[in-house]
Inverse folding.
């Protein structure tokens, strides 16, 4: 049975059916959004570091609903268009793929379909073939995760569709995409919200709608075992200047400056690291962009490297997106878009190379053939 046919009727909408209802909103230049968000940094003339601060809330005091409202008001104006940059590209894929709308984010009372959520399926879905999930834009501000997923669908996915069933959710967090924000509208990080027990438990409210909607949609597909899940991300300079200080302020914690890795790296599951899979991804990407070196302590973002460009996290414990399918092969890509030697297009292509390198490895490792 085709995957799209398994999507509940109530969620199976055509992308074209919502185009006419998506109204244009004023777009604000990104520089305007950042003016108030100044943080302390490492001094060029001193080895001392200073605590990073944030303009909302009181230091050391967790945010209440009032501070979260202040934060949302400070980022409410979109700085780019989900419709123009993402939905139109999804719609152009319909000739070769099946596109399903699986929900809409509840963040616009005037237009409940302002932020529709889409998943793209390979057409020749066959339950006897192994299944692959590609996710992008779990953090909406990570542009190449979204655009790289769309580019993979446009340029490479058909080459693998006779071997794999492919499902791709290219922009999991469209509200964040438009505002170039890591969090959703409720100041929640979707990539710490893929909690199976919470989402599928009784009487509990999931922490992030974006995560819960995706997990519930995937459950309708009837895939018993996913073979591959690759989650496409970026690590940006704004992680350091904006989002780490914001998180510390929200949680009533302190935050000191850290080092943003200059280059590509990926995150494996410490409980299922699959080092050969990770190496294949690194080797595929290195032809397009440089691989992040470790810092002076041998770490990348505070974690010890396991091999060149690879660190590990306990995915399930942190409720990360790459944990939700329990796939045999998982990886979270991290592109560095702020490098002076990497263009936006190179970052998009690095995400494509990440997926291609991973899938080529799995084909060989598992002895798969086209069907």
């Amino acid at each position: 049975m085709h995957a799209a046919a398994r999507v509940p009727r109530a969620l199976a909408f055509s992308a074209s059916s919502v185009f006419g209802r998506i109204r244009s909103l004023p777009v604000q230049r990104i520089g305007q959004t950042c003016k108030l968000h100044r943080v302390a940094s490492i001094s060029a003339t001193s080895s001392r570091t200073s605590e990073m601060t944030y303009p909302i809330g009181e230091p050391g005091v967790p945010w209440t609903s009032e501070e979260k409202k202040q934060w949302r008001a400070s980022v409410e104006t979109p700085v780019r268009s989900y419709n123009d940059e993402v939905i139109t590209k999804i719609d152009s894929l319909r000739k070769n793929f099946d596109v399903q709308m699986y929900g809409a984010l509840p963040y616009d009372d005037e237009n409940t379909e302002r932020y529709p959520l889409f998943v793209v399926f390979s057409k020749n879905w066959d339950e006897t073939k192994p299944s692959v999930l590609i996710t992008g834009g779990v953090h909406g501000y990570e542009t190449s995760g979204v655009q790289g997923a769309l580019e993979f669908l446009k340029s490479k996915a058909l080459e693998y569709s006779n071997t794999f069933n492919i499902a791709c959710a290219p922009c999991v967090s469209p509200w964040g995409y438009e505002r170039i924000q890591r969090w959703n509208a409720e100041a929640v990080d979707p990539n710490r919200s893929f909690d199976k027990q919470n989402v599928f438990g009784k009487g509990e409210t999931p922490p992030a709608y974006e995560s819960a909607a995706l997990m519930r949609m995937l459950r309708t597909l009837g895939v018993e075992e996913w073979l591959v899940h690759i989650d496409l991300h970026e690590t940006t300079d704004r992680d350091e200047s904006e989002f780490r200080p914001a998180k510390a302020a929200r949680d009533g914690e302190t935050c000191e400056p850290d080092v943003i890795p200059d280059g590509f790296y990926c995150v494996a599951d410490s409980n299922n690291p699959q080092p050969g899979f990770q190496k294949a991804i690194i080797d595929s990407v290195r032809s397009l962009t440089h691989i992040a070196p470790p810092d002076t302590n041998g770490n990348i973002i505070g974690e010890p490297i396991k091999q060149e460009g690879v660190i590990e996290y306990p995915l399930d414990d942190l409720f990360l997106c790459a944990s939700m399918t329990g796939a045999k092969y998982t990886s979270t890509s991290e592109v560095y878009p702020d490098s002076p030697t990497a263009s936006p297009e190179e970052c998009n292509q690095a995400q494509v190379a990440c997926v291609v390198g991973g899938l080529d490895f799995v084909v060989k490792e598992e002895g798969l053939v086209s069907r």
Notes: The longest helix spans residues 344-366. The chain is about 35% helix and 15% strand. Residues 1-49 have pLDDT under 50 and may be disordered. Residues 4-18+33-257+328-366 form a domain with the Aminopeptidase fold (CATH 3.40.630.10).
